[in-house]
Amino acid sequence: MIDCKAKFLPHFWKQYDSTHHKLACYYIDGNVKPLGSSKRCRKGKVTMLGRVMNCLEQVIIPDGYGHPIYFRTFSGNADLPKYALQSMAKLNELLNKTKKPNQSRCTRALIFDGGGNSVQNLRAFSKSPYHYITIWDTNQIDERKFKPQSDMECYHYGKAMLTDCCIELLDSKEPKYIYESRAILVHWTNGRKGCLVTSIPPEIFDAHEVVKAYFDRWPQCEKQYAMMKAAVCFYQVVGYGNSPVDDLNRLERINEYQTYIQQLKPKLEVPISQITPISQNLDKRFETERELKESSQIKNGKRVQSEHDFDALKTCL
After folding, report:
1. Could you tell me which residue, 218 or 159, shows the higher pLDDT?
2. What DSSP character marks residue 99?
3. Could you tell me if 148 and 64 are in contact, meaning their C-beta atoms sit under 8 angstroms apart?
4. Which of 62, 126, 131, 271 has the fewest C-beta atoms under 10 angstroms from its C-beta?
5. Beta strands in the chain (DSSP E)
6. DSSP class of residue 90?
């Protein structure tokens, strides 16, 4: 039934064709359904309930117009790069069976949220035949990671300023590996900021089109699916009659930490006053570090530069 739907829907709506589209976008979204069962099954974090429990995760792939065309269900949490690429390969196989012999498909891009933006995942996607667009969390945005930064320009589709640049990321499972990718910094007029990371070159999508392609997921994908989940009570857990109970141990630990913080503040006044002038000199070192990174190149996850620049960079870190 899933295969038949994937074959039918492109005919029902609209097929992508390279003569009309520079890029065919597919959204990838995962939804975790809590599972009330006495049987042994895989557990995962159910974000909406804030619990680690028995669950199923659905991976849904809508097209760029918000039409869901393929989905799979996994026990526990799905491995995004593994199962998403498998699903895309299966979907592509089904779509190729439905297209006409003289019809060619254009370049494809996968758009997913911050839940799958680890460096390991990005490396897996970059080795696939698909481009990607994802968002980086605000607490992950560090000015020292970016190079080189272009001039800001007004966003054509909203109230924001955009900066097209590159970002250097370290793989947590291979700390010495440097992954370099294109990034777009978004400074919204309300004071918020974000960072989109993508493998799409500027020749295909400029910064404005990359940002629009990502944030179109809300009106075309997320909003529709959220309404459907609310209508069918997606997060209702059948079989759980337990009432919430306060965690007394955790409350006690919170009180201990709050008391300790109050006692620690007077002791830190002198060290903080000594750190302040040192931190003011860091801006010059960060600027030198940025210039040295811009003059280097990343090849196979390693930085390539002269020995003099390499030694100078080590003093800045």
Report:
1. 159
2. S
3. no
4. 271
5. 24-27, 29-34, 43-46, 51-62, 68-75, 108-111, 131-136, 146-147, 153-154, 160-171, 174-188, 193-198, 297-299, 302-304
6. H
Give dist(CA 287, CA 298) in Å, integer: 19
Q: b vs e for 237-257, b when ≥16 Cβ sit within 10 Å of the residue's Cβ?
A: beeeeeeeeeeeeeeeeeeee
3-state secondary structure of 289: helix
Task: State how far the Cα of 224 lies from the Cα of 36, in Å rounded to an integer.
Answer: 26
pLDDT digits (tens, 9 = 90+) for 123-142: 888 888 889 999 987 777 78
**For residue range 78-106, what is the model confidence (pLDDT) as tens digits?**
777 677 777 777 777 776 665 554 444 56
Looking at residue 234, the DSSP 8-state letter turns out to be T
Please report, rounded to a whole number, the percentage of residues in the chain having pLDDT higher than 70.
Answer: 80
Per-residue model confidence as pLDDT tens digits over 148-157:
777 899 999 9
Residue 112 phi, psi dihedral angles, 5° rounding: -140, 160
Domain 2-231 falls under CATH 3.10.20.600: no
Q: What angle do CA 5, 36, 77 make, to 5 degrees?
A: 55
Q: CA 75 to CA 32: how far, in whole Å?
A: 10
List every span in the chain annotated with CATH 3.90.350.10: 2-231
Contact in structure between 13 and 103 (CB atoms under 8 Å): no
What would the two tokens of residue 24 be? 């065919």
Two tokens at 245? 């109970």
- Return the DSSP state at 63: B
What is the rounded CA–CA span in Å between residue 166 and residue 303? 14
Which one-letter amino acid corresponds to residue 22?
K
Contacts of 114 (CB under 8 A, 6+ apart): 134, 135, 136, 137
The reported pLDDT for the residue numbered 274 is: 84
